[in-house]
Structures are given as structure tokens and as C-alpha cells.
């Protein structure tokens, strides 16, 4: 008979439900932590979201990254606190493969897993953005990368 085995977690990371965080951030992180791609890669939801959002902020202009941060509320603070991807210039041109490679490097996972984790994070943030902010963010991305953030039709 097959037995259920839990995916091992890092012992130093507190489960999302036990963290003292605002409800919207907590629900976002819980949604991500339950995503199969996050679990398979043994990632912390906050770390995965931070990698994707920081890379996205690096691609957006200074004004758009601030608007995105504000529209995401507590979740958007991850854009403001990112140190790894911050640099002297914003709106760095990058195609989809470069974006995913940056995320994968940040998380120390293979490229194909970087794509899956990016998709999981984009899916989780997409429904939390007002339509106008989503459209503004998508407008600054190359078509192949914008497709990851667009709402399905």
C-alpha cells in the first residue's frame, strides 16, 4: 500500500500560517506555497515571489515599478526591498529567456523550473492586480514575456 509522504521543508523557514504578516500577503504566500512547482523545488514562497517580482521590477520603468508595488499592497513591498536585482538603471531590456534565467539563477534552480516558478508567481499576482495596472505592466514587457502575465481569455 502506498503511503503519503510530505515534501520536506527547510527547518529554518516558519510555515506561512505561523508568520505574523498581513492577511493579503499571507494568503498570497499560502497560495504560492501550495503550488506544486514551488514544492517540487523546495522553495519558500516568499523567496520565489521575491525572485520573480524583483526581476519584473528590474524590467519596468521607475514609475511603473512604484505603481505596481502600490497596487499590490503588502505584496508589493517585495519590489521595494529587493537587493539582488536592484541596479543603477531600471527598465533593462530583457527577453523571456533572460528573465527566466535571472529568476532561475536567483533561486538556484534549473532554467525549466525557473519558467514554471515564474508562471506560478505571475498567476498568483495577476488576480490581485487592478486591470489598469496589469495592462500598464504588460505594455512594458516584450510580447513573449507579457504572455506570462496576461489573463487567460
How would you characterize the overall build of this protein?
The chain has 9 helices and no strands. It is an all-alpha fold. The chain has one domain (36-149): Globin-like, CATH 1.10.490. The longest helix is centred in the last third of the chain and has 16 residues, at 111-126. It is globular, with a radius of gyration of 15 Å.
Please describe the topology of this protein.
Blueprint: H1 23-33, H2 36-40, H3 45-59, H4 62-71, H5 77-81, H6 96-107, H7 111-126, H8 131-139, H9 143-149
Helix pairs in contact: 1-3, 3-6, 3-7, 4-8, 6-7, 8-9
Short description:
By secondary structure, the chain is mainly alpha-helical. It has helices spanning 23-33, 36-40, 45-59, 62-71, 77-81, 96-107, 111-126, 131-139, 143-149.
List the main descriptive attributes of the protein structure presented here:
single chain; 153 residues; mainly alpha; Globin-like; 0% strand; globular; disordered N terminus
Please count the helical segments.
9
- Identify low-pLDDT runs: 1-9
Mean pLDDT, to the nearest integer, reads 78
| Proportion of beta-strand residues | under 5%
Strand tally is 0
CATH class: Mainly Alpha
